[in-house]
């Protein structure tokens, strides 16, 4: 308490009364009195404590008294501790903190550092607690403290000492832009040839210090093209947008090699194979690009990926004004003018490389330079098609307004209009239609109608807007054939099975717009079949209300009841059985599967309802006309649905056949090993496949 009150007289009385002045342990974070007094610069309190026998080297989490006095720049306290008997140790520092001498250097107090040295502090050592400047001299150099650097050298510090684990003072001064210190160390004959473990030399360190580059080149006889792990100094300066350094290098005789390629053994992998000119382009360093072009850098040079400067700027420039300035410079001179129709190894010209972030300004530069805006690449994509595919609406709009053809067709994407529609871009679709696109034409190998494609838009809000626009405003055909499900109404019925409520809204909307409800896909499936597999019965109810035929089998004999029976926890089955009381609950598909077999395979919740409707548990079906026969019980065993087994056992274990013969239930027939769930949905019946690996039977 006496120390904290700065009352050294009171302390003398407390010490005389044998108060504890060593530990500081009364409270968890309380410093020992001597450490506290030294940190606060309380010289008289420190004197009293030392005279009272306090240990000058008592330690704490903050270090010793000497360490704290040095850190806080209290030179009078430091002197007192060093002149005490016993003398405070110069070797103790708290863990993970700068060593004592390093701490002193960082105060900038040359008198304090001189005092420590006079009392035996070592000037050449490595302090592992700091980055790359780990000696006292290099730390002073990193701070640009010329007076401290001079003092350390006067006190015997080795100008080139690194301890093999630190950057030298000269390297540090150059790299940290401490020009005054660097020039002084050069005058003192600091080793200019020293390199770091990652091959950096003094010239590399000066990539951001252009005023030192001529001096180093004159003094050091450097190989101007030597590469460190970050390339040559020209690579470094060009990539970091340091035009003054680039200019200084280009003025040197001999000039650096402008076509020197960034080595493979490097730290920055994404610029391997780049020249300094390509690096400048990648960094959008306009002044560096211009300087290198003036110096005759090869603007046609391509990296390992086949990209030249224009490719790099066009792909990565985005909205950067500097990137646009660099790009325009390549095509407008006054130094060079690139061939805008040149193609790469994949047959693509520059305008085919539009990306999501490519700017209109760059595209405009190409178009105004007479680039062929309707030229197709090897996959049949025009620049407009690529802009739409990449989602770059601004560039797409510019190309359309400039006159790019909107009636381009391709088996990969159908048409330009299909591309825009698939991306959900209503504004682009409107613009393309206004520009004269034909709503009904599509590449025959692609097949999907425009409305069918619109149903696949991922964003539900955009999907609804697009469908309404196509149907209500531009009168797109609502019953055009094409796509996996054949017709828009069938695809919409399939979407009823998703968790997205907009599927039901669109489905009912198409019904109100008089979509043909009885069209069928190539498997004979109609909207009623796919609507029946939905979890909720909104869709099938709407179809029934609109007069759809619910008693139509598909080409495999499957009825809506089959699909409804396969759905776990769905209510379409209840609706169909309740609505159509005369429905044949034992109707068979071409493999003689009844709804009960479909339920036993994939929907235990449907079985009770089917049994109440008098479903026949004796019925057996094959699989794709194979000899293997399946009953509901056998399927329940195969599917691992143990809770269903008792339900699908026949109540009577014998029955009279049509020919008046007697048929026995036969337990062996109904046994089956549990199959392995493949987690792969069948796109015909929409049931997840199950396989028994032992006998290679797959049921789906």
UniProtKB/TrEMBL annotation:
<dbReference type="InterPro" id="IPR036770">
    <property type="entry name" value="Ankyrin_rpt-contain_sf"/>
</dbReference>
<keyword id="KW-0677">Repeat</keyword>
<dbReference type="Pfam" id="PF12796">
    <property type="entry name" value="Ank_2"/>
</dbReference>
<feature type="repeat" description="ANK">
    <location>
        <begin position="272"/>
        <end position="304"/>
    </location>
</feature>
<protein>
    <submittedName>
        <fullName>Ankyrin-3</fullName>
    </submittedName>
</protein>
<feature type="repeat" description="ANK">
    <location>
        <begin position="523"/>
        <end position="555"/>
    </location>
</feature>
<feature type="repeat" description="ANK">
    <location>
        <begin position="412"/>
        <end position="444"/>
    </location>
</feature>
<keyword id="KW-0040">ANK repeat</keyword>
<feature type="repeat" description="ANK">
    <location>
        <begin position="379"/>
        <end position="411"/>
    </location>
</feature>
<dbReference type="InterPro" id="IPR002110">
    <property type="entry name" value="Ankyrin_rpt"/>
</dbReference>
<feature type="repeat" description="ANK">
    <location>
        <begin position="29"/>
        <end position="61"/>
    </location>
</feature>
<dbReference type="Pfam" id="PF13637">
    <property type="entry name" value="Ank_4"/>
</dbReference>
<feature type="repeat" description="ANK">
    <location>
        <begin position="132"/>
        <end position="164"/>
    </location>
</feature>
């Amino acid at each position: 308490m006496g120390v904290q009150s700065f009352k050294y007289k009171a302390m003398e009385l407390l010490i005389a009364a044998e108060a504890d002045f060593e530990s500081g342990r009364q409270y968890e974070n309380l410093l020992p009195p001597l450490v506290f007094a030294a940190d606060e610069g309380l010289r008289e309190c420190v004197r009293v404590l030392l005279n009272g026998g306090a240990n000058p080297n008592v330690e704490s989490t903050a270090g010793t008294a000497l360490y704290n006095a040095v850190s806080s720049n209290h030179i009078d306290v430091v002197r007192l501790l060093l002149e005490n008997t016993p003398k405070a140790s110069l070797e103790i520092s708290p863990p993970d903190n700068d060593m004592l001498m390093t701490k002193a250097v960082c105060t900038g107090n040359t008198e304090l550092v001189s005092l420590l040295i006079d009392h035996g502090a070592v000037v050449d050592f490595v302090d592992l607690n700091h980055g790359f400047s780990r000696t006292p001299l290099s730390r002073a150099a990193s701070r640009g403290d010329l007076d401290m650097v001079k003092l350390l050298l006067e006190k015997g510090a080795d100008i080139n000492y690194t301890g093999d684990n630190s950057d030298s003072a000269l390297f540090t001064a150059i790299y940290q832009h401490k020009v005054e210190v660097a020039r002084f160390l050069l005058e003192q004959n600091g080793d200019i040839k020293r390199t770091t473990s990652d091959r950096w030399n003094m010239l590399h360190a000066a990539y951001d210090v252009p005023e030192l580059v001529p001096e180093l080149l004159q003094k050091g006889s450097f190989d101007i093209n030597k590469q460190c792990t970050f390339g040559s100094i020209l690579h470094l300066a060009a990539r970091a947008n340091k035009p003054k350094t680039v200019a200084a290098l280009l003025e040197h005789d001999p000039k650096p090699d402008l076509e020197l390629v960034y080595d493979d053994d490097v730290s920055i992998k994404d610029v391997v194979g780049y020249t300094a000119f390509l690096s400048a382009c990648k960094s959008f360093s306009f002044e560096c690009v211009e300087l290198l072009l003036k110096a005759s850098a090869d603007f046609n040079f391509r990296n390992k990926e086949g990209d030249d400067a224009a490719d790099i700027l066009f792909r990565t420039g985005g909205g950067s004004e500097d990137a646009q300035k660099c790009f325009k410079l390549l095509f407008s001179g006054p130094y060079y003018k690139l061939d805008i129709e040149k193609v790469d190894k994949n047959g693509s010209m520059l305008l085919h490389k539009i990306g999501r972030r490519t700017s209109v300004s760059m595209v405009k530069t190409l178009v105004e330079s007479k680039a062929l805006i309707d030229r197709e690449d090897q996959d049949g994509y025009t620049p407009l098609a690529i802009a739409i595919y990449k989602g770059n609406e601004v560039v797409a709009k510019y190309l359309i307004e400039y006159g790019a053809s909107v009636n381009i067709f391709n088996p990969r994407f159908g048409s330009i209009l299909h591309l825009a529609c698939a991306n959900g871009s209503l504004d682009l679709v409107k613009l393309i239609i206004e520009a004269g696109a034909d709503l009904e034409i599509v590449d025959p190998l692609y097949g999907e109608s425009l409305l069918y494609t619109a149903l696949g838009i991922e964003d539900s809000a955009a999907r609804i807007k697009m469908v309404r626009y196509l149907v209500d405003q531009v009168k797109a055909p609502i019953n055009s054939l094409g796509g996996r499900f054949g017709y828009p109404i069938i695809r919409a019925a399939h979407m009823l099975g998703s968790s997205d409520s907009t599927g039901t809204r669109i489905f009912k909307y198409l019904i109100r717009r008089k979509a043909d409800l009885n069209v069928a896909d190539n498997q004979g499936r109609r909207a009623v079949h796919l609507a029946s597999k939905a979890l909720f019965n909104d869709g099938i109810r709407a179809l029934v209300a609109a007069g759809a035929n619910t008693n139509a089998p598909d080409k495999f004999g499957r009825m809506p009841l089959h699909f409804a029976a396969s759905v776990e926890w769905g209510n379409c089955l209840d609706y169909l059985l309740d609505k159509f009381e005369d429905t044949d609950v034992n109707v068979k598909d071409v493999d003689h599967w009844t709804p009960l077999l479909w339920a036993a395979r994939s929907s235990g919740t449907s079985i009770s309802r089917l049994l109440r409707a008098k479903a026949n548990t004796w019925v057996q079906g094959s699989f794709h006309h194979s000899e293997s026969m399946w009953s509901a019980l056998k399927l329940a065993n195969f599917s691992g649905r143990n809770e269903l087994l008792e339900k699908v056992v026949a109540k009577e274990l014998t029955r009279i056949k049509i020919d008046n013969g007697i048929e026995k239930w036969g337990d062996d027939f109904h046994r089956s090993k549990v199959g392995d769930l493949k987690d792969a949905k069948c796109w015909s019946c929409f049931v997840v496949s199950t396989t028994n690996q032992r006998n290679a039977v797959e049921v789906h």
